Amino acid sequence: MPIRRKKIEEEFFKSIMLMATLIIITALALIIISILYKGLPSLSWEMISQTPKGGFYFGKEGGILNAIIGSVYLSIGSTMLAFLVSLPVALYMNVYLTKHAKIVNIIRFFLDLLWGVPSIVYGAFGFSIMIYFGMRTSLLAGIVTVTLFIIPIMIRSMDEVIKTIPKGLLETSFSLGSTKSETAYRIYLKQCVPGVITAILLSFGRAIGDAASILFTAGYTDSIPTSLTQPSATLPLSIFFQLSSPIPEVQNRAYASATILTCFILIISISARYFSKLFNKNKISL
Amino acid sequence: MGNFFNINRILRAKIHHSWMVIALIIVIIIPFAIAVCLYYKSGILIKETSVLHFLFSKDWRPMHEKFGLAPFIVSSLWVTVLAVLFSGPVCLLTGIFLTQYTRKRFLEMMHPVIDILAGIPSVIYGVWGILLIVPFVSKYLAPLLHISTSGYNILSGAIVLSVMIIPFILNILIEVFQTIPEELKEASLSLGATKWETIKFVMLKKAFPGIISALGLGVSRAFGETIAVLMVVGNVVQIPKGVFQAGYPLPALIANNYGEMLSIPKYDAALMLAALVLFTVVLIFNLFSRLLIVRMEKNN
Known about the structure:
Largest interface: A-B, 89 and 86 residues
Number of domains of chain B: 2
CATH architecture of the largest domain in chain A: Orthogonal Bundle
CATH superfamily of the largest domain in chain B: MetI-like
Mean pLDDT of chain A: 88
Helix content of chain A: over 70%
Shape of chain B: globular
Strand content of chain A: under 5%
Structural class of chain B: mainly alpha
Helix content of chain B: over 70%
Mean pLDDT of chain B: 87
CATH architecture of the largest domain in chain B: Orthogonal Bundle
Low-confidence stretches of chain B: none
Largest sheet of chain B: 2 strands, antiparallel
Number of helices of chain A: 10
Oligomer: heterodimer
CATH class of the largest domain in chain A: Mainly Alpha
CATH class of the largest domain in chain B: Mainly Alpha
Order of helices and strands of chain B: HHHEEHHHHHHHHHH
Number of helices of chain B: 13
Distance between the termini of chain B: 55 Å
Number of strands of chain B: 2
Largest sheet of chain A: none
CATH superfamily of the largest domain in chain A: MetI-like
Shape of chain A: globular
Low-confidence stretches of chain A: none
Strand order of the largest sheet of chain B: 1-2
Radius of gyration of chain A: 23 Å
């Protein structure tokens, strides 16, 4: 092939590659712009400060405070619960099992598999467990289901951070006489705080945005839950339900609720990024 | 005193150790618990007739105790395959571009874009689909082909899905392209090949298993996606014969019917069987994709 034709071919592919990249950027821009464009005009202080009043679902007054608070309760609860399980596992893999690389790799592989399980499957599972124990849809059932769903995400993100810590630190800490748990929690954890925060934020974002797993477990109600056994409204479901209404005012409020959820997610993403940068900046290399 | 602290430290180490092991066991048990639970719950159906009967039967009339899952499985296949067909080439081109033709700075600028795409909740994708994709399909795309449709169809579902799975495919592709040894490319370049030839004949060949596994992960993601697809795909029980027909994928079936099925035990079992099918298919695709990646990393 003459060199000129090679050149043309390369330039051609370079330009469609650039186009592909631009398509992805445009897709993201379109999502955010279209949500904000439709949602911002209907967004009002009333929406975020009030619970639904009578006739709310026919376009009368009220807001979605119940869903916002419910979502925050649900995500904080499940993130905390998942943290209790995830941090020990991530530390165990990187401090206790350092000599068994094979086992650690198997656990990682296993978690990656779990990460892929769709949230609707967790939802169906959570629902069955709930029925089995004779519980009704409640904040607690929602929290447990979402916890199961975010555990693999949290462990793997923490693990990715913790595994970058050099072995030298482990040996130094042991040689100074600290126990394994002290090395794990006092040395390793301290070194990884920003990275661990990133992992927590990512899982929190997953928890607040997921709808399929809580569809049958958290229930839906117009009031703010006051105990774990009460059902709870959530933002994703409030968007989903309001959007299926034929009344334009209610649909507009769905767009406004979508704007609120999108803002939550954007804030979470940006702060997760910030902490991950902070971690990379302070990373030690022995 | 010193002795006391020592005992205390050892005790604490022991407590920490046991909690770590318990936590790990909990995590390992979860998927098995899910599998056993779904299998057990779908038991009354499978006991009487073989699973294959339900997978291939088109007859879905829950009130008459007919639970053929074929319409849902076929719909799921349609949206999944289309989504990966749309998304795959775009991600492949972008992945090559970002790792081979741009500076590191640009790749770092793209990372937030990928992260945010991955972080956007599925319900937001659904809202976006209703706002933009559904009108686009019904008002612009379908009239071009002289078809009239509400826009709530397989194609809309596949377009929304294809955007949703971009971050998952692209992240793996970038990782795969970055693990290709630099020496390999240098050898090809020094033999007089152009950069594009090197990419085409050397890098893509070497990265082939990685590319397949990235697409495999995309498939498993797309197959299980629920709310976003459910909002735009139309939800009509039928075996779709074209992309402009409404479909009813498996996850949507579970999500839409869960509340009402409790009164009929067999209905409950059928939905659990659907969840089991979903779980199994996703795990299989995940397993093979991940195995390919592991093997590729070992070879490099």
